[in-house]
Amino acid sequence: MGNATEGDEVSWSVGAGLEGRSVIVTGAAGGIGRAVALAFATTGARVLATDIDQSRLDNVLLNCSGDGHVALALDLNDPLARDQLVAQALTEFGGIDVLAHTAAVLRRRENVNDITEDDWDAQLDTNLKTTFFLSRAVASEMAQRGGGRIILFSSQGWMTGGFGGSMVYAASKGGVVSLSRGLARTFGPQGVNVNTVAPGQINTPMLHTGLDPAVYQRMSDETPLGYVGEPEDIAGVVVFLASQHARFITGATINVSGGFLMY
């Protein structure tokens, strides 16, 4: 998806420029990933949805509007699986216009002394290492075709250091912010925009994993807008970043936290 140039007419439809485009959504069976996949489908884009559970992915596709979508179960921590994902997109769609990389893993440990090396490796491998190698592969393909959009996912934890026993997760997500800026500088001259979405509290299974309900209520109470967000609140931002409206945005981290954080 090449960037528009000065003087080009910009459509102001909700998914400007996305109709017929090819979009990879990782973590597509999860709360945010599912909402992102469905949102892209409404724009007329073709979605390649990937996660580790084929049956849940098939359910996502059943709810996607339009046609031409593909569901592919993969463990993206495996380098061969990342290669397969890129190859499948090229086979099915002839190219990759957008990558929305929502896949991540969180392991809460209330006591810092309970964090194991396996906890560290699992979160850093999935949330940071895989993000780099997948993004690099996709950006390289996009660069050969004149550009594209990559939307990565951080968390409010990249700035706060993490709440509720999520210190290692927060460290991995801080790495994503730095990584996205480096990718934006590297691939910007080839027309590839790279941005990051940093959600606050969003009502997903990941947020509730090991979380005291009282803490969840406090999150809602302490958010200036007065509620915990829904996955759809994130999906709209992702579609915007992939659309023509965001053609001059790259290297940005978009805070979507209901005002819980302000920066």
Please write out the topology.
Blueprint: E1 22-26, H1 31-42, E2 46-51, H2 54-62, E3 70-73, H3 79-93, E4 98-101, H4 117-144, E5 148-153, H5 157-160, H6 167-187, E6 192-199, H7 205-208, H8 213-222, H9 231-242, E7 253-256
Parallel strand pairs: 1-2, 1-4, 2-3, 4-5, 5-6, 6-7
Give structural attributes.
Rossmann fold; seven-stranded parallel sheet; 263 residues; 9 helices
Describe this structure in words.
- It is a single chain.
- The chain has 263 residues and is α/β, with parallel strands linked by helices.
- It has a single domain, classed as NAD(P)-binding Rossmann-like Domain (Rossmann fold).
- It is 44% helix and 14% strand.
- The chain has nine helices and seven strands; from the N terminus they run βαβαβαβαβααβαααβ.
- The protein has a seven-stranded parallel sheet with strand order 3-2-1-4-5-6-7, sandwiched between helices.
- The model has no long low-confidence stretch (mean pLDDT 93).
